[in-house]
Amino acid sequence: MIENNQAIVLWKRCLAFIKDNVNTTAFTTWFEPIVPIKYEGKALTIGVPSPFFYEYLEEKYVDLLRTALYKEIGEGTELMYSIVTDNTNHIDIEMKGTERSVALPEAKPVYNGNKAPTLLQAPVVQDLDPHLNPNYNFENFIKGTSNEFSLTVAETVAQNPARTFNPLFLYGPSGVGKTHLINAIGTRIKELYPEKRVLYISAHLFQVQYTDSIRTNHFNDFITFYQQIDVLIIDDIQEFAGVTKTQNTFFHIFNHLHQNGKQLILTSDRAPVMLQGIEDRLLTRFKWGLIAELERPDIDLRKNILRSKIRRDGLNIPDAVINYIAENVNESVRELEGIVNSLLVYSIQLKREINLDLAQHIVQKAVRCSEIKPLTVNDIIEKVCSHYQLDVSVIHTKTRKREVVQVRQIAMYLAKKHTDVSSGKIGQLIGNKDHATVLHACKIVKDQVEVDKAFRQELEKIEASLHQG
Ligand SMILES: Nc1ncnc2c1ncn2[C@@H]1O[C@H](COP(=O)(O)OP(=O)(O)OP(=O)(O)O)[C@@H](O)[C@H]1O
């Protein structure tokens, strides 16, 4: 690779500036490994060792890099990245710096980003920033048994928005790929139907925009803006719990879009039946289309995700290390990614190869904080039965006695709330019932919790005992 002399000189100046503005460890870890590649047409290209390195720089140091470039080279200088795996080999994935932060929805509120709520007309398609994260796409979403169904319905919706499942409601615990999948749907729709107005927004940001619109007397603009979206994607809808006015506004937007054949895509950390503090009329609507669950990744998926991430980061990690991580880190994909990133940082900082020792050290540190044993459905059955002084075996019989039915329903409700076991599996483990019986039980208990104070306190007592040995 021929380095361009001008790039070396310019980058050296930037480095001097950066060195004055970060601590020594950060400088050694994140800036020393960078190699200047070329300077052409007001763009400086730098080589970084992996895509992760690029993402990290863009996330943590984007402002510092921009300031250094503008100050040392000139206002408006662009930064380009190239992934360099070693001195002789460089994968030419050129990535434009500073775009990533713009692509991330939370980094820039949609309200300002689209300037749309001040317009009474529909935003022109090309003016509407969909706020999709292009790094979350179908191509890099790895399929496994825990996400296969959700992936299939997501692809179906992307192929034919508003024609099949509307709304599409995806739910599952944190870090299992919900945000990734809904961004992938949005991106695919934009590819297939560029004329469609697609918008991704977190429920939190939607609420902030709504409150802002009231404060600044722009409520009508706010409503008009949302009613003109073709594909509305709202992440983490559980955040609407308890905020009645936002829910009310969303209810009207939902109705308008649905009636006009527009697609709605929603995610939540739990099934609609478990969403407390959300009005029934909204919950009913969430069930109009299709509800799909994303479960925690099983071991095969964990291994495949690790392999894919490692390949993408240009790392060389032995199989024994991959197996060790996959066996010991099982909470979420986010957690897996965190471990690989830590491995990378440690190996750069300590200049050590990635081996089993290093992996064990990192995994133990990460897992130690969450050493509380996760609850199982059996733990819950035992606690509930002991609270009601009922023999555990009775819960598994076919009896329809009122008190047994109620204990069974409470156990199902608590299992759904406190574990990530799927409804079907909970049914199997509690009296060999089906998935629909579990959801019905959850609804019955939830309704009673909302109106019956004594019952609510009783459940709180059982819940408090769940983590006691
Ligand atoms: N099947 C998968 N293939 C590849 N990457 C995945 C997969 N599932 C999750 N990920 C990655 O794991 C990380 C966490 O996923 P994501 O943010 O989509 O989770 P989430 O379910 O939306 O979590 P939360 O509810 O906390 O927002 C992301 O970097 C995502 O790309």
Automatic annotation (TrEMBL):
<feature type="binding site">
    <location>
        <position position="175"/>
    </location>
    <ligand>
        <name>ATP</name>
    </ligand>
</feature>
<feature type="binding site">
    <location>
        <position position="179"/>
    </location>
    <ligand>
        <name>ATP</name>
    </ligand>
</feature>
<keyword id="KW-0446">Lipid-binding</keyword>
<dbReference type="GO" id="GO:0005737">
    <property type="term" value="C:cytoplasm"/>
</dbReference>
<dbReference type="GO" id="GO:0005886">
    <property type="term" value="C:plasma membrane"/>
</dbReference>
<dbReference type="GO" id="GO:0008289">
    <property type="term" value="F:lipid binding"/>
</dbReference>
<dbReference type="Pfam" id="PF08299">
    <property type="entry name" value="Bac_DnaA_C"/>
</dbReference>
<keyword id="KW-0067">ATP-binding</keyword>
<keyword id="KW-0238">DNA-binding</keyword>
<feature type="domain" description="Chromosomal replication initiator DnaA C-terminal">
    <location>
        <begin position="376"/>
        <end position="445"/>
    </location>
</feature>
<feature type="region of interest" description="Domain I, interacts with DnaA modulators">
    <location>
        <begin position="1"/>
        <end position="103"/>
    </location>
</feature>
<feature type="domain" description="AAA+ ATPase">
    <location>
        <begin position="164"/>
        <end position="294"/>
    </location>
</feature>
<feature type="binding site">
    <location>
        <position position="178"/>
    </location>
    <ligand>
        <name>ATP</name>
    </ligand>
</feature>
<protein>
    <recommendedName>
        <fullName>Chromosomal replication initiator protein DnaA</fullName>
    </recommendedName>
</protein>
<dbReference type="GO" id="GO:0006275">
    <property type="term" value="P:regulation of DNA replication"/>
</dbReference>
<dbReference type="InterPro" id="IPR038454">
    <property type="entry name" value="DnaA_N_sf"/>
</dbReference>
<dbReference type="InterPro" id="IPR001957">
    <property type="entry name" value="Chromosome_initiator_DnaA"/>
</dbReference>
<keyword id="KW-0235">DNA replication</keyword>
<comment type="subunit">
    <text>Oligomerizes as a right-handed, spiral filament on DNA at oriC.</text>
</comment>
<dbReference type="InterPro" id="IPR027417">
    <property type="entry name" value="P-loop_NTPase"/>
</dbReference>
<dbReference type="GO" id="GO:0005524">
    <property type="term" value="F:ATP binding"/>
</dbReference>
<keyword id="KW-0547">Nucleotide-binding</keyword>
<feature type="binding site">
    <location>
        <position position="177"/>
    </location>
    <ligand>
        <name>ATP</name>
    </ligand>
</feature>
<feature type="region of interest" description="Domain IV, binds dsDNA">
    <location>
        <begin position="348"/>
        <end position="469"/>
    </location>
</feature>
<dbReference type="Pfam" id="PF11638">
    <property type="entry name" value="DnaA_N"/>
</dbReference>
<comment type="similarity">
    <text>Belongs to the DnaA family.</text>
</comment>
<dbReference type="InterPro" id="IPR024633">
    <property type="entry name" value="DnaA_N_dom"/>
</dbReference>
<dbReference type="InterPro" id="IPR020591">
    <property type="entry name" value="Chromosome_initiator_DnaA-like"/>
</dbReference>
<feature type="region of interest" description="Domain III, AAA+ region">
    <location>
        <begin position="131"/>
        <end position="347"/>
    </location>
</feature>
<dbReference type="InterPro" id="IPR010921">
    <property type="entry name" value="Trp_repressor/repl_initiator"/>
</dbReference>
<dbReference type="InterPro" id="IPR003593">
    <property type="entry name" value="AAA+_ATPase"/>
</dbReference>
<dbReference type="InterPro" id="IPR018312">
    <property type="entry name" value="Chromosome_initiator_DnaA_CS"/>
</dbReference>
<dbReference type="InterPro" id="IPR013317">
    <property type="entry name" value="DnaA_dom"/>
</dbReference>
<keyword id="KW-0963">Cytoplasm</keyword>
<dbReference type="GO" id="GO:0003688">
    <property type="term" value="F:DNA replication origin binding"/>
</dbReference>
<dbReference type="GO" id="GO:0006270">
    <property type="term" value="P:DNA replication initiation"/>
</dbReference>
<dbReference type="Pfam" id="PF00308">
    <property type="entry name" value="Bac_DnaA"/>
</dbReference>
<dbReference type="InterPro" id="IPR013159">
    <property type="entry name" value="DnaA_C"/>
</dbReference>
<comment type="function">
    <text>Plays an essential role in the initiation and regulation of chromosomal replication. ATP-DnaA binds to the origin of replication (oriC) to initiate formation of the DNA replication initiation complex once per cell cycle. Binds the DnaA box (a 9 base pair repeat at the origin) and separates the double-stranded (ds)DNA. Forms a right-handed helical filament on oriC DNA; dsDNA binds to the exterior of the filament while single-stranded (ss)DNA is stabiized in the filament's interior.</text>
</comment>
